[in-house]
Amino acid sequence: MSVERGAVLADHADRGALAALAAARGWTRTAAEPAGFAEPEREVWDAGGGTRVVYAESPVRGTRFVCVTGPDAGSAEEAFAAVAAVLPTVPVEEILAGLLAEPAPAPRELIRGLDRLATAARANGERRPEDPRYRRVVERLAAHPERQVRRALLFAVEELSAVRPELADPILARRDEETELAELVRTFAETVRARS
After folding, report:
1. For residue 5, which of 86, 89, 61 has the smallest C-alpha distance?
2. Which residues are within 8 A (CB) of 181 and not within 5 positions of it... i.e. 6 or more apart?
3. Residue 12 gets which letter from DSSP?
4. Per-residue confidence at 149, pLDDT binned at 50, 70, 90?
5. Would you place residue 80 in the very low, low, confident or very high pLDDT band (cuts 50, 70, 90)?
6. C-alpha 113: how far from chain center
7. Mean pLDDT throughout 50-77?
8. Is there a cis peptide before residue 88, judged by omega within 30 degrees of 0?
C-alpha cells in the first residue's frame, strides 16, 4: 500500500528550486505534461525506491501543489521533507483559519481558500483525523450571500467529500433553501449519493 504526503505551495514558491533539488538528488524526471483545458500541468520525478514526486498546477485558479507517493510512510515523509525544505507550503491550518476569519474575507479570497483546501485534500489522498473546522467552514459558506462563494463551496466539497463524506451533509440540509444554484445542488446530491 502506498502512502501519500502533499501540500499546497505558497505563491512565492519557486518551481525551479524543485527541479534543482531533483537534479541534486539524482531523481529522474519521468513526465512533463502541459496543462489541458481541465487538467493540471504536471511534472513527475522518480525519487527511487518506489517513491514519486509530483508537481502540479491547476489550470483554473492556478493553485500549485506537490504530492509525494512512497511505498511506506518513512520514504514518503523523507522525500516530502526534502521538497518542503526548498518550496514553501501553505499549511491546512492556515487555510482553515483564513476561511473562518472574522470578519469574513472578501469573496475572492474565500473562493481561493476553498480551492486550496480541496487541493490539499487531493494532494494528501487519504482521510485525515476528524476536524470540526471543516464542517464549520461548510456551514458558514453554505449560507454566504455571494452566489459564487456557494458555487465554489459545492465544487470544493465534492472533492473533499471523497475523504470527508460528512461534509456533504450541511449542503444537502440546505437543498431547499438554495434556489440560485438549485440545478448544481441537485447534481451535487446525485454525485454524493453515487459515491456512498
Report:
1. 89
2. 147, 150, 151, 154
3. T
4. very high
5. very high
6. 10
7. 91
8. no
- CATH fold for the domain made of 3-89: Double Stranded RNA Binding Domain (3.30.160)
Give the CA distances from residue 146 to residues 60, 108, 113, 141, in Å, rounded to whole numbers and listed in that order: 20, 10, 15, 9
Cell of 134: 471543516
User: CA-based angle 123:124:129, to the nearest 5?
Assistant: 145
**pLDDT > 70: what percent of the chain?**
97
| pLDDT score of 21 | 98
Average of pLDDT values for 95-109?
A: 96
H helices of the chain, in order, are 15-25, 73-86, 92-99, 107-124, 132-142, 147-160, 168-173, 182-195
Domain boundaries, the chain: 3-89, 92-195
Evaluate whether 11 touches 33 at the Cβ level (below 8 Å).
Answer: no
- Using DSSP's 3-state secondary structure scheme, residue 106 falls into coil
Higher pLDDT, 123 or 167: 167
Residue 60 pLDDT greater than 80, yes or no: no
